[in-house]
Design a protein that fits this description.
alpha/beta, two-stranded antiparallel sheet, transferase, SAM-dependent_MTases_sf, Ribosomal RNA adenine methylase transferase N-terminal domain-containing protein, methyltransferase
Length: 253
């Protein structure tokens, strides 16, 4: 089944973005929804070993023709959810199908073998959700201990065929060299964040009353400069991290 997708009009623009991404010869780079192969071709020209994933059999036929006898581009005709991520270091540079952006980004970033770096062409709204801009989201709070997020380029609608009806950006995601949450703590941290985002009622003070006393919440709010009546999206990532460290030390969660 083909996915609705907006393809790049200008190969020169793609080339400039890939040059800026500093893809090095020998890098393994994943291109999800490879389409007509514009990104894959420029990645290969930069010396990368490309893993091109495409579900549409007609586009796969074109890709196989375009990269016939090219040992540096490997083509996979399957849904990305059925694709096995590399167990060795790799990067991602891709123009994602907008309708499945959240699904595919979740697969990439929550995987044990997540990418060292990813450049994703996505809707601006999705990029803001992932990066916690201008307010943190459950997704951003879950992943910021492990990744940096930055919107680094704003596209024009005319950069694509067909033109998208929404604003589109390039989101850069970089794995932190040293995570802010250790691997043994990861499950506890994720459970806490999901609990806090999904059980708050009037505010977090009420939602977290089973794990943080009102007295302790007052102290946390004062020390970390947030409102007693803060909702999940009112807190910065640093404030979320400090709340988790508090309950972790107290073994409250």
């Amino acid at each position: 089944m083909a996915l609705s997708q907006n393809f790049f009009r200008d190969e020169g623009l793609v080339n400039r973005l890939i040059v800026a991404a500093k893809i090095k010869p020998g890098d393994t780079v994943l291109d999800i929804g490879a389409g007509y192969g514009i990104i894959s071709a420029i990645l290969e020209a930069a010396g990368a070993k490309v893993l091109a994933v495409e579900i549409d059999p007609l586009l796969v036929k074109h890709l196989k023709w375009r990269f016939a006898n090219n040992i540096n581009v490997k083509i996979y005709n399957l849904d990305f959810n059925k694709f096995s991520l590399p167990k060795y270091p790799y990067k991602v540079f891709t123009n994602l199908p907008f309708s499945r952006t959240s699904e595919f980004v979740t697969k990439l970033l929550f995987a044990k073998s997540s990418p060292e770096e990813a450049h994703l062409v996505v809707q601006k709204e999705a990029a803001q959700k992932f990066s916690g801009t201008p307010r943190e989201t459950q997704f951003s709070v879950l992943l910021k201990p492990f990744f940096y997020f930055e919107i680094i380029y704003n596209f024009k609608k005319s950069d694509f065929i067909p033109q998208p009806s929404v604003e589109t950006v390039l989101l850069k995601i970089t794995k932190r060299p040293t995570p802010l949450i250790s691997q043994p703590e990861k499950m506890s941290y994720e459970d806490f964040v999901r609990y806090a985002f999904n059980t708050w009622k009037k505010d977090l003070k009420v939602g977290l009353k089973k794990v943080i006393s009102y007295r302790a919440w007052h102290r946390l709010a004062k020390d970390n400069k947030f409102s007693l009546h803060a909702k999940p999206t009112d807190l910065t990532f640093d404030q979320w991290l400090k709340i988790y460290k508090f309950i972790s030390l107290k073994k409250l969660f």
